[in-house]
Amino acid sequence: MRLLLMTALLYCTSALAQSKADNIRMSTTWLKSTQAEAGLGMELRPIVQRAARESRNGGNDSARALLLDVARQCDAYRAAPDRHVVSFRSQRQYELYLDAHSDGRPIDWLDMACGDAYKQLGYLAVENRDYPQALQWLDKAQATAPYEPEMLTERGAALNLSKNWKAALESYQQALDLIGSHPEAAYAEALALRGMGFALIELGDLDAARDAYESSLKLEPGNRNAERELTYIKQQQARLDKP
Q1: Can you say whether the dihedral through the CA atoms of 194, 227, 187, 144 is positive or negative?
Q2: β-strand 84-87 against 22-27: which pairing, if any?
Q3: In terms of Cα–Cα distance, which of 177, 75, 61, 174 is closest to 118?
Q4: How many of the other CB atoms lie within 10 Å of CB of 63?
Q5: CB under 8 Å to 241, separation ≥6 — which residues?
Q6: pLDDT for the residue 101
Q7: Which of 22-36, 77-91, 93-107, 211-225 has the lowest mean pLDDT?
Q8: Do residues 176 and 30 touch, judged by C-beta distance below 8 A?
Q9: Strand residues in the chain grouped as ranges (E)
Q10: Among candidate residues 235, 233, 240, the one with its CA nearest the CA of residue 212
Q11: What share of the chain is helix, strand, coil (3-state, %, to 5)?
Q12: Other CB atoms closer than 10 Å to residue 142's CB: what's the count?
């Protein structure tokens, strides 16, 4: 049985799906990012954290209701006319964005609670196997918090579950590109490599998949999912090498 490790920060859920002839157990992991600096809408953080607890305890419906209320408030912040309203984790990210968007419009620092709320709604949609809805929430989360890697890695997971391997691979590559430029995102690198490896197996590129999983193990030695996938790759390559 092959395993695919999906992305999650503090608000993850699990999902099951079927891929080709194999059953795939979709599981989640806790990724620990640095605490984001406070911004506009920081009063929403306790609600987002409560939704995370609800989801972890099996209360997805109540978590979704809480998050939808937060999302409506975040939408109102983001709807401010003639302004950029964006979530950042650090002053460095804010300054980078400021340098890249010198169009004269003011930039409002939106609290990461908003990006996290949209992201969590994406997780819950994946849990319900509503992948188009998940992608909508995750794209919104990425537009809100453009320097966060998890929106892209979770997007890759949703695309893998949808069997859209090429698009999944592109999403994971985008995550790795972002991680390479932003030290705050480094915590998600191993996860992105594992997701990329999974997509590469499905695309038939076993050598590149092996490289991705081996690279992930350098970052997270002993990860059981990566080790299982490498065993799977070895078995597939041995089968292909038989005369």
Answers
A1: positive
A2: unpaired
A3: 75
A4: 26
A5: none
A6: 84
A7: 22-36
A8: no
A9: 2-5, 15-19, 22-27, 84-87, 107-110
A10: 233
A11: 65, 10, 25
A12: 24
Tracing tokens 């390559």 back to the chain, one arrives at: 237
Name residue 26's amino acid.
M
Distance CA 109, CA 100 (A): 15
Residues in the chain: 243
Contacts of 127 (CB under 8 A, 6+ apart): 13, 14, 15, 60
Q: In this prediction, what percent of the chain has a pLDDT beyond 90?
A: 67
Q: Residues near 46 by Cβ (< 8 Å), separated by ≥ 6?
A: none
- Tens-digit pLDDT profile for residues 153-176: 999 999 999 999 999 999 999 999
Tokens for 60, please give them.
């997805």
How far apart are alpha carbons 203 and 98 in whole angstroms? 39
Q: 69-83, 102-116, 186-200: which has the minimum mean pLDDT?
A: 102-116
- What is the 8-class DSSP label of residue 21? T
Tokens of 162: 């949808």
pLDDT digits over 9-22, tens only? 323 322 222 233 23
| pLDDT over 50 at 107, yes or no | yes
